[in-house]
């Protein structure tokens, strides 16, 4: 079972690796991970596969694997940016790229061949099974209390009783590729409509924190977890609309319902309502009286306003100054066409938050005050939309109004208890008000509710680690966030500060250079705008760490 990885000799039984004069003892789990990667040398192994096989069914946190990978790289002297041993493949997993040679003296050829099958699970010891059961029972019993009586529960038994569904991205079959915003909007709005039903659990509804181009068409973790898959296509030509939709049982892979809709473009809301009603009927979902009235609820009665809103959403997620202004123009046009379009007001509010955070405005007026007015207007128009509460909480957070922000986001969670973005921003509020332990609990809950979480979620977890004083894990998690979305400014800033805090000045300087690449105009004054931290001392510490890395 012993083997070589490049110049390192791996003694599995003693949990030691040796190279020249170096003799290092590994933790048992780290050794198990190294063996597993070696057995799959050259192949990409997904995070899910590693967690399932290396941890043998145990309930673990997101960062357990990240910490083990970081430890392995450290003892091997590897660099995640220019790896010689372990390569991170963004959105896919990890791959051992160093050569492996096996010592077969202790194993038959047949045993080795079986052991090296990718994804093959070893027998789980009885003690491990008992421990896993105990952990599961503890997780079921645990209830975490957060401000204003909001509770977190991830009881798998309760979740399994509710049918789950994921709305996969609808394909754009229009001749014009620029019409993708419309099919994306249909996908998102169907997910929102279905998520309002208490008898149905929508997995991985579109996150407000995801950025343009961040997702891809690979089979996401949420797709594996969902019982039902809703997929389809949208074709728009002039005033005509064709929508094809299909509902699949993910357990049997059988199609259980499908329909085609050929309508005038003005009937797009009717199509969405009919799809929702058909799913309710097909899955025999029981609706409350209030839900029956909400099934047909529309965000706007103006197709033109809706089109402007969808265009604005697609532009806003690109997070650049020019696209932010263009999105704002479309949103204003949408509001002019429908003055009661709550979602348009909510998204318009977000454009002002980003204007403030990234200094996109040369004016003297504080954009956050404009944000508050718009977000409050959105809530006043429609208080059944968790997204409008999120916009309000986001503005309140950046004004350092932590208690009102918590109150706002708790209202969103009352409307939709499984709202992952609600827990993500609740994590940020707690981190910035000086309660990182509470923030860590909230971001882990957000990740459980949205297994396809965006890079922003990972960055939030990194900040929780940072303010807990766990800089090793913070650095590893920030690296993961950058791997998933290289343009994420928050992750670059905090990675640079964390590396500097660890005394890794060469790496910190390199990270600072990467930050300059994506944000050439970055200055120290940006930090307080981007991170609304309550403790001035903590802000000054970040300033000092960034200066040591070569930023000013």
Task: Give me some keywords for this one.
552 residues; alpha+beta; 6-stranded mixed sheet; 24 helices; 15 strands
Number of strands: 15
- The shape, in one word, is globular
| C-alpha-based Rg, rounded | 25 Å
The span between the termini is: 52 Å
* Content-based structural category: alpha+beta
Please outline the major beta sheet.
Answer: 6 strands, mixed
The mean pLDDT is: 79
Total DSSP helices: 24
**Fraction of residues in β-strands:** 5-15%
**Poorly predicted parts:** 105-160, 215-219
Structural account:
The chain is α+β, with helices and mostly antiparallel strands and 552 residues long. 54% of the residues lie in helices and 12% in strands. It has helices at residues 28-39, 47-54, 63-76, 109-115, 126-141, 156-161, 180-195, 221-225, 268-282, 289-295, 303-316, 321-337, 342-357, 367-381, 386-398, 402-415, 420-432, 436-449, 455-468, 471-484, 489-501, 505-518, 525-530, 536-548; strands spanning 3-5, 8-11, 16-19, 22-25, 86-89, 93-96, 100-102, 144-145, 151-152, 164-167, 171-172, 201-202, 228-237, 240-249, 254-264. The chain is globular. The protein starts with a strand and ends with a helix. 41% of the residues are buried. The model is unreliable at 105-160 and 215-219 (pLDDT under 50).
Which helices and strands, and how do they pair?
Layout: E1 3-5, E2 8-11, E3 16-19, E4 22-25, H1 28-39, H2 47-54, H3 63-76, E5 86-89, E6 93-96, E7 100-102, H4 109-115, H5 126-141, E8 144-145, E9 151-152, H6 156-161, E10 164-167, E11 171-172, H7 180-195, E12 201-202, H8 221-225, E13 228-237, E14 240-249, E15 254-264, H9 268-282, H10 289-295, H11 303-316, H12 321-337, H13 342-357, H14 367-381, H15 386-398, H16 402-415, H17 420-432, H18 436-449, H19 455-468, H20 471-484, H21 489-501, H22 505-518, H23 525-530, H24 536-548
Parallel strand pairs: 10-12, 10-13, 11-13
Antiparallel strand pairs: 1-2, 1-7, 2-3, 3-4, 5-6, 8-9, 13-14, 14-15
Helix pairs in contact: 1-3, 3-20, 7-9, 7-11, 11-12, 11-13, 12-13, 13-14, 13-15, 14-15, 15-16, 15-17, 16-17, 17-18, 17-19, 18-19, 19-20, 19-21, 20-21, 21-22, 21-24
């Amino acid at each position: 079972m012993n083997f070589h990885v490049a110049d390192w000799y791996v003694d599995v039984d003693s949990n030691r690796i040796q190279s020249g004069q170096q003799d290092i003892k590994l933790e048992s789990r780290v050794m198990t991970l190294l063996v597993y990667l070696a057995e799959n040398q050259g192949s990409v192994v997904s995070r899910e596969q590693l967690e399932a096989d290396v941890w043998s069914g145990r309930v673990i946190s997101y960062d357990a694997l990240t910490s083990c990978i970081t430890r392995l790289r450290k003892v091997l002297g590897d660099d995640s940016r220019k790896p010689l041993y372990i390569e991170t493949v963004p959105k896919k997993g990890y791959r051992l790229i160093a050569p492996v040679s096996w010592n077969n003296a202790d194993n038959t050829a047949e045993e080795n061949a079986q052991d090296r099958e990718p994804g093959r699970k070893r027998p789980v010891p009885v003690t491990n099974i008992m421990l896993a059961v105990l952990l599961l029972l503890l997780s079921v019993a645990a209830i975490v209390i957060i401000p204003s009586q909001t509770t977190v529960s991830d009881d798998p038994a309760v979740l399994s009783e509710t049918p789950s569904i994921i709305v996969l991205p609808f394909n754009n079959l229009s001749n014009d590729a620029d019409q993708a915003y419309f099919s994306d909007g249909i996908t998102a709005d169907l997910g929102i409509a279905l998520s309002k039903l208490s008898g149905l659990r929508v997995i991985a509804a579109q996150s407000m924190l995801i950025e343009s181009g961040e997702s891809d068409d690979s089979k996401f973790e949420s797709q594996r977890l969902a019982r039902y898959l809703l997929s389809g296509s949208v074709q728009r030509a002039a005033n005509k609309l064709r929508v094809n939709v299909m509902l699949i049982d993910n357990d049997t892979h059988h199609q259980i319902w499908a329909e085609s809709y050929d309508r005038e473009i003005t009937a797009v809301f009717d199509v969405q309502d009919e799809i929702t009603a058909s799913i309710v009927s097909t899955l025999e979902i029981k609706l409350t009286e209030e839900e029956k009235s909400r099934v047909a609820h529309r965000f706007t009665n103006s197709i033109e306003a809706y089109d402007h809103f969808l265009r604005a959403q697609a532009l806003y997620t690109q997070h650049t100054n020019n696209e932010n202004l263009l999105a704002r123009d479309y949103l204003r046009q949408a509001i002019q066409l429908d003055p009661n379009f709550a979602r348009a007001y909510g998204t318009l509010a977000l454009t002002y938050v980003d204007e403030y955070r990234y200094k996109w405005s040369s004016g003297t007026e504080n954009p956050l005050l404009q944000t508050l007015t718009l977000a409050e207007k959105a809530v006043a128009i429609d208080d059944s939309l968790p997204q409008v509460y999120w916009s309000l909480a986001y503005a309140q957070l950046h004004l350092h109004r932590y208690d009102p922000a918590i109150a706002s986001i708790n209202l969103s969670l009352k409307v939709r208890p499984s709202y992952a973005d609600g827990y993500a921003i609740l994590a940020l509020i707690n981190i910035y008000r000086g309660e990182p332990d509470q923030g860590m609990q909230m971001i882990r809950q957000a990740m459980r509710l949205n297994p396809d979480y965006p890079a922003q979620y990972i960055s939030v977890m990194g900040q929780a680690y940072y303010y807990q004083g766990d800089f090793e894990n913070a650095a590893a998690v920030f690296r993961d966030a950058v791997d998933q979305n290289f343009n994420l400014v928050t992750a670059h800033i905090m990675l640079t500060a964390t590396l500097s805090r660890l005394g890794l000045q060469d790496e910190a300087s390199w990270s600072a250079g990467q930050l300059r690449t994506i944000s050439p105009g970055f200055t120290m004054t940006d930090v307080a705008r981007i991170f609304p931290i309550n403790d001035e001392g903590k802000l000054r510490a970040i300033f000092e760490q960034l200066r040591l890395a070569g930023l000013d």
